[in-house]
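Recall that a protein's primary structure is simply its ordered list of amino acids. Everything else, from secondary elements to tertiary packing, is in principle encoded there. The following example makes that idea concrete.
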Amino acid sequence: ALLRRFGSIQRLRIAPIHEIEQVDGFGGTMAQALKRFLEARKDS
């Protein structure tokens, strides 16, 4: 669902949390955790 909505990991990484929250199954807590995960992986 996330890749269908955003098209790529790169676009997902820069998406604001409020847009991620709009995807089915991703509330505020899950969206924030995903953003933290993607930010941590950005420098890896």
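The chain is about 70% helix and 0% strand. The two ends are 25 Å apart (CA to CA).
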